From TrEMBL:
EC main group: transferase
Protein name, UniProt field: Starch synthase, chloroplastic/amyloplastic
Organism for this UniProt entry: Punica granatum
Cellular localisation: Plastid, Chloroplast; Plastid, Amyloplast
GO cellular component, one term: chloroplast
Coiled-coil spans in chain: 36-87, 138-321
Reactions it catalyzes: [(1->4)-alpha-D-glucosyl](n) + ADP-alpha-D-glucose = [(1->4)-alpha-D-glucosyl](n+1) + ADP + H(+)
Span of the signal peptide: none
InterPro entries reported for this sequence: Glyco_trans_1 (IPR001296), GS/SS (IPR011835), Starch_synth_cat_dom (IPR013534)
SUPFAM superfamilies on file: UDP-Glycosyltransferase/glycogen phosphorylase
Superkingdom, natural source: Eukaryota
Chief place where the protein resides: plastid
Amino acid sequence: MEDLVGMIRNAEKNIVLLDQARVRALNDLGSIMSEKEALQGEINVLEMKLVETDARMKVAAQEKLHVELLEDQLEKLKDELVQRSRIDRNESDVYKDHDYPLNQENSPSHHSIVHPHMYKDHKHPLNRDDSQPMQSSIYTLREELRSLRTENESLKNDIQALRDDLNGVKSTDERVIILEKEQSYLESALKNLESKLSDSREDVSKLSTLKFEYKDLLEKVENLQVLLDKATKQADQAILELQQNQELQKKVDKLEESLKEANIYKLSSEKLQQYNELMQQKIKLLEDRLERSDEEVLSYLQLYQESVQEFQDTLNSLKEESNKRALNEPVDDLPREFWSHLLLRIDGWFLEKKISANDANLLGEMVWKRERRICNAYMVCKEKNERDAISTFVGLISKAPTSPGLHVVHIAAEMAPVAKVGGLGDVVTGLSKALQKKGHLVEIILPKYDCMQYDRVRDLRALDFEVESYFEGRLFKNKIWIGTIEGLPVYFIEPLHPDKFFWRGQFYGEHDDFKRFSFFSRAALELLLQAGKKPDIIHCHDWQTAFVAPLYWDLYAPKGLNSARICFTCHNFEYQGTAPASEMASCGLDVQQLNRPDRMQDNSSHERVNPIKGAVVFSNIVTTVSPTYAQEVRTAEGGRGLHTTLNLHSKKFIGILNGIDTDAWNPASDSFLEVQYSATDVLGKAENKSALRRQLGLSRANPRQPLVSCITRLVPQKGVHLIRHAMYRTMELGGQFILLGSSPILHIQREFEGIVSQFQNHDHVRLILKYDESLSHRIYAASDMFIIPSIFEPCGLTQMIAMRYGSIPIARKTGGLNDSVFDVDDDTVPLQFRNGFTFLNADEQGLSSAFERAFNHYNNSAETWQQLVQKVMNLDFSWDSSASQYEELYSKSVARARAAQRT
Ligand SMILES: Nc1ncnc2c1ncn2[C@@H]1O[C@H](COP(=O)(O)OP(=O)(O)O)[C@@H](O)[C@H]1O
């Protein structure tokens, strides 16, 4: 297994490296491409320039021709001028005495801007007046020539510059070619990497299937272990029977001897004769029994041998297989059940006085830290007897390791899924699992109810250890059982009390609940004390275990169980468990001391004590299950008489929103569902809807007909009249309605039974009045909308579970609903948080308006509704962040206590 995990890790590393290389290659490619584009731009510019230069060169060539022509012309004109000046000289000899104006006017400065066309009308070039335009034209031509020359020069320069540019372009082209080569090399490298990546992905998937197979095999081994245990028991029984048979054989021998003696007197006495016959019959009977019993023993032995053989074979093959595939599973990957089982085993040894408290603590911490050596020791000891196993384990202890986290013990009356009435059970399991995942040592103490779901408890066994606890002036023994639930170590207390406190077929609702749970609270503390445990936090819940807080500080801290801080969570202030003050004495609490206004005395009745108030006063940390509810209970309307106490202790009181167990509530792996589905593949939701309609006999004519549901305890808190109204409103709006609920209140149960009979075999309504875990999963998955019209709601889990399964909540804005459901049409809430439909007033109009909006949204656009479904499925309602808040509260409280001890 270690190899496998090593391979997985390598493959994962390779994937990461490949991804990084891929990203780098893509970046390089990107920069090359942009460089290439820039170069291409430059080439384009240069090409344009080249074309321009070509054109200019052509023009220049034409100009040159023109210049040459002009030069010829100029040459001709010069010749002409020379001839003229010769003639002029001759003539000047004739006119030499005249003051001739030309002498003056001939000065070039006067003709500098004369143009050739000025003399074009002159008939005779030899005419004296004609020479002036001629000269000016020559001058102009010269000027033109000069300017053409300079232009020519600059063109030559341009051409030279362009040639240089051209050279540059050529070298750029060469660079482009190199870059293109580089690009193609990178692309092929990239392809290479991609194929390697897909190869390693395949490897990873193979490895994960191997891992699953391994887990499967592990489970088989455990099953076989159970089989072996059974077979061992059978063998023990067989040995017992064998002993009995031997005794019988002895008796038979004796009888035979007597028979011999009797034979002597056979003839002499008829009585003896009869006796003899009787004896023979008896012998026959005994022989038959012996034979039967021998056969039985033989069959037992055979069965045992077969089971042992089967176990041995499977074990060998598993060993081989596991040696081949996964020699050593990394310790972190072992299931949480394994560690919890190991922990309970060590505790069991300690409680049965087979190891010392110190050894138990040190071994416990090794388990807590999930150390490889203790895991290896377990593997080695699997086939050893208990004594050898203990000595192997104790041999591991060298030096005391330091604790990696907090040691938290929950004392509670419920734990999902084995003993669940409502949200409390979910919270105990969900919070404990999340804390365990964060590295804390978490243990749970529960009453051992007769009505628990025992098939969900693993490795349940009674310890050879009993805890004696005080009640009503006497000491009573308690049998201690251990087992794991959802991978958590759990202690079950079975009071050996004549009142059979937890053999009542139900969790609550008994006339003596106050007695039952005050007894349990004390027995739980007694267990911690006698087991020598030193928890950092003792976390108690609701009134049933609220007694723990005063019991701890008044009785158990003085006895030495003083390492802990007490955390109390109230899941619902409606249930306070008040009782006449005198009843408190049963569990050993001092009535005189505690029935005081500042301690446990009920705020509205001075004759009664209030366990919740006691826990608020005596705990170090007090929490409730949502921030809004924490505010509400501090008001006179919401506090159920405890608002003054809560305000007095407000510094230690906080509301933390519950999470849900996202492993247990996961549509992608939920085995109760017809089809598993997820936010990225919601098609399965429609299949679950169709399957549930078929199962419940509802009409399936229109797959788009909206399905509204409600799963709840039917108590006034849940807005029973609004649930009823929702059912009728759903029908009016053309939807279908399913209710799963039951009521501990007789008249409500009756009322709903009446509605059930009214809607028997109805096409669009189904009411199921019972508690049904698996059906609840299927309803969450099938529904389009989910209603929670509570009058008050401390936290509420159903809205979160519904969203996890893509059912859109329609909820009243109160307590935890106000902290978790945000209206789709509420502009004041950021868009990403909007997830359902809410209403403020707890009346039919309020509910109807939210209902109508929900139906409108559903009917108007299937696509938008689908997006909403996907969005709510992706919201995080896990315990992660809530557990972190508890962790912080615990740590701060422990740190404060340690600091106080130091000073
Ligand atoms: N009849 C029922 N069948 C199955 N599960 C139920 C039933 N009634 C309630 N539940 C479950 O009980 C839990 C209710 O928790 P929550 O909303 O906090 O309400 P409360 O704790 O007040 O009952 C949810 O997990 C819900 O699915």
